Amino acid sequence: MIDKTDKALEYHRMIAPLLAPGLEQAERRALREHVLLTENISERTLRRLMEKFRNGQKRKRNAIEQAPKTGSRLLQSLEKVKKALLHNKQSFLFLTVYLLNSLFPLPLAGSI
């Protein structure tokens, strides 16, 4: 049975020649015809594969571009929480116990 990774690699192998930068329109058309004949797929299937690849690349690029913004906002939020907790030691102790209990829950009495 072919898993999803193998299938994706196979699809990418099929369309990789068409993704080469700097191809002229005639070259691209000839490559497309070659792929259609050798892989025995329809033109519609090839268009769908190309579209999936392009959309996947856009999603990846968007995620990479958004990552620094998200990380930066997260760090700013953590700094605010840190400052607020340092001003109130009782809240800091409460939050520490809460987080430790969330990560390492203690069994209820009588359940051991």
Structure description:
By secondary structure, the chain is mainly alpha-helical. The protein is 78% helix and 0% strand. It has helices at 4-15, 25-39, 43-87, 89-103. The longest helix has 45 residues, at 43-87. The protein is elongated. The two termini are 45 Å apart. The mean pLDDT is 76.
State the shape: elongated
Assign the structural class, choosing from mainly alpha, mainly beta, alpha/beta, alpha+beta, or little secondary structure. Answer: mainly alpha
Q: Characterize the largest beta sheet: strand count, sense, and whether it forms a barrel.
A: none
Distance between the termini: 45 Å
Count of runs of 4 or more consecutive helical residues: 4
Q: What is the helix fraction of residues, given as a range? A: over 70%
Global mean pLDDT:
76
Query: How large a portion of the residues is in β-strands, by DSSP E?
Result: under 5%
Radius of gyration: 27 Å
* Overall strand count: 0
